[in-house]
From TrEMBL:
InterPro entries: MFS_trans_sf, POT_fam. It holds the Pfam family PTR2. GO terms for cellular component: membrane. The keyword Metal-binding does not apply. The chain crosses the membrane at residues 12-38, 50-69, 76-99, 119-142, 162-183, 189-210, 305-325, 345-365, 386-403, 423-445, 457-477, 507-526. It is a multi-pass membrane protein. It comes from Gossypium tomentosum. Its main location: membrane. This is Major facilitator superfamily (MFS) profile domain-containing protein. It is found in: Membrane. The lineage of its organism: Eukaryota, Viridiplantae, Streptophyta, Embryophyta, Tracheophyta.
């Protein structure tokens, strides 16, 4: 890697965009449910589902940004193109919040979003989701590309990079959930959206200024095409017999070809896919008749990742529910903390403050200490880090249910003297720690384990997990209401209507805690089954030496 490029100097521009772009994104993430409910006249379940569907779309579309930045454009150009769409989407949201003609009439009570208002509303959210998702799919990998993971020093720096990237986005989130949310609720919504738009513009200018300092890995052919090729050829060769010696499988032993690409050794998992690398009788085989061992191993790596991805979805479903319903809980609580009124949407400031102190402590104290014991560059493995996050998420759901019982009992007993909003900081604080362990662990895991040429796409798997979590959370609310209507003595769903005091949100939280516990058991099985690329390479070498 060029000594004049890359490293933390180049990452400073990535950190700048991570912070500035996150100001508006996180402010919208925590407050839009209130905007939908009070200004756009959605009921509580619809407000919650609309927000989670939007956030799920953002995370899902990160795959598009990752795919393009691996195949057609470098990371920087991908970020700038999708960033332009994000700015356009934010501008449209700002205009709708400003113009009374583009908002429902104040007297409207039901089905208020229609006609031109609906076109503007759904159009702006769609463009914003595409732009934001594309940026998030390429940005983390742009920073990670600045380090050589094959070098021991670079491997340590890569682990540190993901921690500092998380810290930069945390700084942006702190500004978003405090100042921007306060402006939105106490001044006007369009001012909050406008501030998020301007912060994003400054961030994209900053990332563009770093162009001379970035290291760009070479683009490769479409990862989807390579995956499809392995599957198709393996299916065509399904009746053929695998050779006893894996060295007889097809491989291109060209040093120039693998100067930048990673040559993966053969492994014994998913042997059925090895049939795609059976050498045909032709002297010069066509691409769709044979695949290289490295190409087959790329598909194996992605296949091993899928159970890990699936087993983190439940946690992200809980995260989505906690984000939306905690804000609605806050609307029924005493919003004065230390004598000053505190917007419910700003409650996430508590875990963000904790994370601001805990991330440096983790980086400078925990990691060096754990590194001495384990010898791992990151202190503990990425999957161990994710496991800690899953345990914390279970605890958070249990605490959330207890606090909801306390809130509801006090509200029913004395509605004019509700409990303090500060109580929500406990569930948010624990979940903030869970997020710190899980999201960073997943991004580092997917980036390090991904084959070269699929780094952005694989890193986006962390966002894909969030996406499924958000979409499932919408279904959870609907399914839970439908089921509990039938089995509850009151014939009412756990979460329905506009009054949380008549709901059983605590039971919903505890249900998620039980579900998360079962999910953690599944995760342990998946994590214990997974073999890191380094481990599979070493075990394969040892098995060959024994033969």
């Amino acid at each position: 890697m060029d000594g004049k490029k890359g490293g933390f100097r180049a990452c400073c521009f990535v950190f700048a965009l991570g912070a500035l772009e996150n100001i508006g994104f996180v402010a919208n993430m925590v407050s839009m449910v209130i905007y939908f409910h009070y200004l756009l006249k959605f009921d509580i379940p619809t407000s919650s589902n609309t927000l989670t569907n939007f956030l799920g779309s953002v995370c899902l579309l990160s795959l598009l940004g990752g795919f393009i930045s691996d195949t057609y454009l470098n990371r920087l150009y991908t970020i700038l193109i999708f960033g332009s769409l994000e700015v356009i989407g934010l501008s449209m949201v700002t205009i709708q919040a400003y113009s009374k003609d583009l908002r429902p009439d104040i007297t409207c009570e039901k089905s208020c979003i229609k006609g031109g208002i609906a076109l503007m509303f759904y159009g702006s959210l769609s463009i914003l989701a595409i732009g934001t998702g594309g940026v998030k799919g390429a940005l983390p990998a742009l920073g990670a590309d600045q380090f050589d993971s094959k070098d021991p020093k670079g491997a340590k720096q890569l682990g540190s990079y993901f921690n500092w990237y998380m810290l930069s986005t945390t700084f942006g989130a702190m500004i978003g959930v405090t100042f921007v949310v306060w402006v939105s609720i106490n001044k006007d919504w369009y001012w909050g959206f406008f501030m998020g738009t301007m912060a994003a513009i400054v961030g994209f200018i900053a990332i563009a200024l770093g162009k001379p300092f970035y290291h760009y890995p070479p683009l490769r052919s479409s990862p989807l095409l390579r995956i499809a090729q392995v599957i198709v050829v393996a299916f065509k060769n399904r009746r053929l017999t695998l050779p006893e010696n894996p060295d007889e499988l097809f491989e291109i032993n060209d040093i120039d070809k693998y100067q930048y690409d990673e040559k993966l050794p053969h492994t014994n998992q998913f042997r059925l896919l090895d049939k795609a690398a059976i050498v045909p009788l032709e002297t010069f085989p066509q691409p769709w008749k044979v695949c290289t061992v490295t190409q087959v191993e790329e598909v194996k790596v992605l296949t091993r990742m899928l159970p890990i991805l699936a087993s983190t979805i439940i946690m992200n479903t809980c995260l989505a529910q906690l984000q939306t319903f905690s804000v609605l809980q806050g609307a029924f609580m005493d919003q004065h903390i230390f004598g000053k009124k505190f917007p419910p949407a700003s409650i996430p400031i508590f875990p963000l403050v904790f994370m601001t102190f805990l991330i440096p402590i983790y980086e400078f104290v925990v990691v060096p200490f754990a590194r001495k014991i384990t010898g791992h560059p990151s202190g503990i493995t990425q999957l161990q880090r994710v496991g800690v996050g899953l345990i914390l998420s279970i605890i958070s759901m249990g605490v959330a249910g207890i606090i909801e019982v306390k809130r509801r009992d006090q509200s029913i007993k004395d509605p004019f003297n509700p409990i303090s909003l500060f109580w929500l900081s406990f569930q948010y604080g624990i979940f903030g720690l869970a997020d710190m362990f899980t999201i960073v662990g997943l991004m580092e895991f997917f980036y390090k384990e991904a084959p070269s040429g699929m780094k952005s796409l694989a890193t986006s798997f962390a966002w894909l997990s969030l996406s499924f979590g958000y979409f499932l959370s919408s279904a959870f609310v609907d399914i839970m209401n439908a089921v509990t209507k039938k089995i509850a003595p009151s014939k009412k769903g756990w979460i329905e209507g506009d009054n949380l005091d008549e709901s059983n949100l605590n039971l919903f939280y505890w249900f998620l805690a039980v579900l998360s516990t079962l999910n953690f058991v599944v995760y342990l099985l998946c994590a214990s089954w997974y073999k890191y690329k380094e481990d599979t390479a070493e075990s394969e070498t040892e098995s060959r030496n024994d033969q």
